[in-house]
Amino acid sequence: MFSNYIKVAFRNLLRNKAFSVINILGLALGIASSLLIFLWIQDEVSIGTHYPNGASLYRIMEHEIADGRIVTDEDTPGILADELKKQFPEIEYAAGFSGPESHLLSVGSKSTKQKGHFVGADWLIMYSIPVLAGNATTALTTPNSVAISRKLAEIYFGTPQKAVGKTIRFDNYADHQITAVFENLPANSPEPYDFLRNWKQYLQRETWLMDWSNAGPGTRIQLRPDANPALLNAKLKTFLKGRNTDIGPTFNIELFLQPETEAYLYSDFKDGHRAGGRIEYVQLFSIVAVFLLLIASINFMNLATARSVNRGREVGVRKVVGAPRAALIAQFLGEAMFLTFLALVVALVLVSIILPAFNQLTGKELLLPFHDPAFGLVLAGILLVMGLLAGSYPALFLSSLNPINVLKGKLRFGSGALLFRRGLVVFQFVLSMLLIVGTLVIYRQLDYIQTKHLGYDRENLIRIQGEGEIAQKYTAFKQELLSMPGIQSVTHMQTDPLYNGNTTDGVHWIGKDPTSAIQFNNTWIGYDFTKTMKIKVLQGRDFSPSYGTDTTNYLINEAAAKRIGYKDPVGQPLTFGKQPGKIVGLIEDFHFNSLHVPIRPLIIRLAETWNYDNILIRTQPGQTQQALASLQAICAKMNPKYPFTYSFVDAEYNRLYQSETIVRTLAVFFAGLAIFIACLGLFGLAAFTAEQRTKEIGIRKVLGASISSIVTLLSSDFLKLVMVAILIAIPIAWYVCSNWLENFAYKIALSWWVFAAASLLAILIALLTVSFQSIKAALMNPVKSLRSE
């Protein structure tokens, strides 16, 4: 009997080639899309979880409570790690962690630029980083010690063993002794680096971090196995009181623990509470994967039902000769499993073909893990669930047919069956509408971000790092650069123009409440800052070498002026820390952080001779290549020991929203697939309807009905289903998109035309899908459809 079922399945597969191809393709696309999403999600949730001690690793976070708001970040005092380890026996290890730094590393005549961090001595032990040579416990305990990756050891010395004890020079002036070589970090590490330097050396360089009132680097800890994180959290809440002199009635800092395993996915906080992060994308695409599988399964059901008339006589004959219903159900489920297996094979081939492009898009290194037993279980689960889901309704429906009626040619479907099939189509188009609206909103928001005026002109703006001789001879560098072709203006800025994390509450003015601690962002700049950035000066002037007192004066933005309360701020006194001065200029608000956060009050100070920061060069429009050639020539002349590196500010800005851009692209891709698969289902239902109404159409044509009236008759039923789907989908889409847009401080409005355009597109897609079968049915010769009567 089993072999007979296999023969029947093959015959049906070959007899209905078009039907089989459409069915297998629909299932394969659904499975392939879900597998891609599964691989991406698996990689996302694995980031930051590969540490053996991961369950006991925590980041120290801060809630800054001031000025009526709570700001959460991981910037902490530089001396916090050592103090926590002394004060709390629950903490086994603790280490500070600086932001990434890029340095020129040299051994003999070989030099390369690499990125790394300053870290506490416990770092290698806490994160269980495999040490190939040297001692993990003592590697970072002495100043000028450095641990490097296997990659660097092989570049400079050939092997890890040969590297230990050797000297490597940083930035052509500071020699460091290599005390350890660690294994290259995994590709999915949240914070990649190739060298680690001693923490005490960092504090000696950044002496301001020795003050409890200042924060900048991160702090990581590892708890003892018997420690209670909740109890430690309660103790940490008030830890800085008595240490940070700025804490008072209107300003407070509360420390708390965030598990290392959650830090990557749950990075966003709002009003002191965890508000999401990349976990939102993981959840979103998990839902999309499930929807794609459902749509593909529904497509199978509709197509199988559409062909049920042709299988009716077969079922009738089998029942007459004694086949029980259970055997028929097993037969049709087996055929569904067989088709699903073929679709799974096609899906794996499609994923193998698509994966390189998918990796390039997402910036990952995903592979099909055939060696992993868990992946085999996933494939088996997909096969079983989709086979049962896709084949269940056709199996139950066909096995329930009355053999006498079927063999008499009286195959009819009840209202329940009709309602169920229409419900499936409505469900498919609800999902399609959600994806269409979501894609339109994501596209509009990303376009808004990428084209929004930031308060300065990011086009034709190049950034280079002030390093080596350029940092020491900035004035000469600027003068020579201004004489070269393609260069319009030059300035420099202490912070990255796209990110300013420097905050202080040490700003004072006339009329300020002495008990308040209001947070201001701050930065240092050089001359010609507003000219180079093309920031509008609303009142007063920019810093100028014509005014020798500008070293003690300030520029402020509109947000700062509003917060201070000066109606006419220019000329008014202002004190930053212990440095009194006056405001010489009011500049227009500009974005110096992500558009996810509002523009904050900003105080700008002059430091023309600052010896390390970001140098900004504005090029003449249309002369970028000449400007780059000029810049490279001067850098090679004045800073020959450093490789020439640069970046365009507009490209860096776009990278800030890389996650959203990837989501936008993936949304378009998966939305297109979902719509295509849904259309296959609609195509199946149209074919089924046309087949059921063949004689009716023949009679109408004999009585004089036109082709257009018949096409309208057949299409109107499907349009009603699409309209129902639109009415259901619009409020859901509005709710979901509104919540997503709340993550942006600056966002588009949800206009009515977005929903109208999505509705129109859904109707158009439905019409194009149905019209083929409708026209085919309308053109059929009525003689053929009525000859059996």
TrEMBL record:
Residue span(s) of domain MacB-like periplasmic core: 20-237, 432-629
Gene Ontology CC, one term: plasma membrane
ABC3 transporter permease C-terminal domain ranges (all copies): 287-403, 669-782
Subcellular location: Cell membrane
Main location: membrane
Keyword Cell membrane attributed: yes
Keywords: Cell membrane, Membrane, Transmembrane, Transmembrane helix
Membrane-spanning residues: 21-41, 284-305, 326-355, 375-398, 419-443, 666-690, 702-730, 750-770
Database matches in Pfam families: FtsX, MacB_PCD
Molecular function terms from GO: transmembrane transporter activity
Protein name: ABC transporter permease
The species this protein was found in: Xanthocytophaga agilis
